[in-house]
Amino acid sequence: MKKQSTLVLCLIGLLCVLTAVLEALGKHCGSDKKPYDPDTQGCCINPDGTGKVTDKPENTNPCTLNEVQEDLCKMSSAFGNKVCAQYGRTVCYNGKKVGCVCNCMGIQNAALLACIQAHEDEHAKDDNLKCADCDTKKPTPQDQNIDAQNHCVLYKKDRDCAKAIPGWEDNPEIRVFVENAIFLLRWNSCPE
Ligand SMILES: [Zn+2]
Q: How many A from CA of 17 to the centre of ligand 1?
């Protein structure tokens, strides 16, 4: 009886060690998938050489982080970061781009939320946008002209996506979104 229970404990212990090793090996930082470093957890390195812990299990969705929802979505410093500045945000996380919806806009319509997410997902796929480090900053456009052209395409998609939602004209939040997209198309002198 004693021998059996020792064997079971040993097996459980072995499984736990094995799981921990596999979990550690599975963690990586960004697209280059550097091996997991237990000292920094995230193995990401800031420009000043310090490690940045960004891939703790509780931080797996960067869109829920305060630094994204508060600092980036409410970026208007003139109003003490109280004003919601964007419908969405593409952020860098562990060197990868992630498209986020800004909750501060309070959008309720699920189809409109999908339009906003689609805009940010396009940025996340855009090779012209590069992440410089491990912070949840905005990725940097490599070529500003390409970025402007891409945005003209996206503002049109925003407008058309929202106008394709049945009953959009009777929904104030969708109407405002459409007007905003039309304003941005004009403000940026986008070709029709
Ligand atoms: Zn955009």
A: 45
